[in-house]
Amino acid sequence: MEFLTPLLPENLLWLELSIAVLGVAFAYLVARSTILREDDEAPINYAVPLPDQCKPGWSSRILEHPSIKIPGSSAIQCYNPATGQLLGQVNPATPDGIDRAVARAAEAQKEWAKTSFRQRRKVLRTILKFVLDNQDDIATVACLDSGKTKVDAMLGEILVTVEKLKWTIQHGEKALRPERRPSNFLMMYKQNEVRWEPLGVLAACVSWKYASFFWPFASQSKETRLMSTINSYPFHNALSPIISTLFTGSALLVKSSEQTAFSANYFTSVARNALSACGHSSNLIQSIVCWPQTANHLTSHPGISHITFIGSRPIAHFVCASAAKALIPVCVELGGKDPALALDSISDYDLEHKTVPILMKGTFVSSGQNCIGIERIIACPRSYDRLIPLLEEQI
After folding, report:
1. Is-contact 345 355, C-beta < 8 A?
2. Deepest of 91, 153, 168, 289, by most Cβ within 10 A of its Cβ?
């Protein structure tokens, strides 16, 4: 049959060769695209100068009466809560300084908002590599400023920060893709879509979680003073909002607690220097440490598009009231009431050697003022009588 003539053996040879060539070309293009993609997002090595206080041989005097306040000075005095060792002094931000920081961040955000997810992932991969390569130094800085142990720093600072970086790198783009929404008969000529766009300049007030100092506010004709908090996770609480902010194309002002003023600049420099290493403006991230009476200027600033606050309920009321002056949306995280459940099925050995240590640490870590700390223990009938004497002995 004549129509089968083109498929004679001599023609099949050329067909097979053509298919082979196309297959090789396709494989090359796929491999080249993958390699280039990985190269585009490859992390860049960079450095952040380590504070002298973390270097071997450094020493300082022990404060007889440790306090962040210095009589006759507006400077913030930094010290190690575990030892009382003086770490230095930090000049607090002023209202004018906050204005300048907002302006710098807003200018840098205009270009950052145009970046691709690939470019943002590269910055996060760069930060991730730095954290993994310098985790001991980061933990040391966190320990000096918060008084915690290295074990707590590795678990509560490094591990959780690394996991958030990894999740955002792997799933961030998918989470921010435009989403379709159903329409109706009358609007059938239109399509509905939700798009996630950068907000602009955000603020993160991340003083968490030890009660320590008084925050004064004017309440009608008298001054109201309320307890505020120390930052018990200075690295994680600074990097966590930075990660989300950078990947969504916005800029951020990180307002750290004055109780952890020593580490604030170093930890924000981890992100700022990563931005510079990747060819972007470091002004996207601004570090703010100020006295409570100045914080109101930040939380009501018209240049701020959104505020995240981590702390206590009393302070959250004032943050929200201040933000309402400029109609700034606020997201607050005020801790929880987390119970622990001791079941009857726990063996005597496990109760003494496993359950009791967990209950003690979960209850008393961070002086009991941890947002995920144990607030109450619910003991089943047969475990109650066994548990009480063991806890009494520990307490």
Report:
1. no
2. 153
